[in-house]
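Re: weekly structure request thread

Next one in the queue (282 aa):
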Amino acid sequence: MPLNLSNVGHTTKPRAFTYDWKTLATYALGIGAKRDELGYLYEGAPGGMKVYPTFGVIPSQDAAFEVLEVAGAELSQIVHGGQTLRVHRPIPTSGTLVTTATLSAIYDLKKFAQVIVETKTTLDDAPLFDTVWSIIARGAGGFGGPRPPHAEAEAPVPKNREPDWVVEETTTPEQALLYRLSGDHNPLHADPEVAEKAGFAQGPILHGLCTYGFAARAIIQKAAGGDASRLRAYGAQFRKPVWPGDTLVTQGYALDNGKIAVVTSVKGRPDPVLTSAWAEIG
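Done, posted below.
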């Protein structure tokens, strides 16, 4: 089914998202938080509960999916291509956030199409965080549209240099089932039959944003001294599937101006699963 190119520029009506400590703890567990990260899991933690900034993808996902429907993308044929998050100030531990999403562009990748969705989330009418979602629509290309513009890498991985740090962490066999409690209920991540029909005979795959969260925790641990509020911006492209139970290996390279180049792979497999990944540390 062709995409609705005439809807480029469409912006949704504001959508409200109310959350509390239970929402935050569920998300933190979904991205692998452990007992020694109690500040992100327990509302009674000394000094108050902390928030992983990548939680920002959760309040914005419903608005982003609304835009995908406006674009005419078939949800059974989409895969997540990339994600960017920029945080303007620390996310509070509870509240009601308001998000709008815009269909920014649709690009022709011959066999596929790339749909770009941008969201803006506010709290008390003040900007809190922005996201950019790059979604690949399989079988929707070849319509003669523009190719995506060439963009310089935010933080190229240095050549001929070992990483400054490495974090290795194993996901659980139930990781996707836990992450989906935060709102992404696509059966591709839960139902073996759906996964097989989509070409994943090994079983349901892990959400790309779950892998994104695991890598963010590694960045915060190693590059921000465990202080999540220092992660100001973070982006990555999703290249290969991850299955629940896989061990993720995240490598970080410190660059100038607080930038970190990041690569995440699955232990025992040669190709990275997150590429063109970068973070800004304040």
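Helices lie at 21-30, 57-71, 175-179, 192-197, 208-223. Residues 152-282 form a domain with the Thiol Ester Dehydrase; Chain A fold (CATH 3.10.129.10).
Next request, please.
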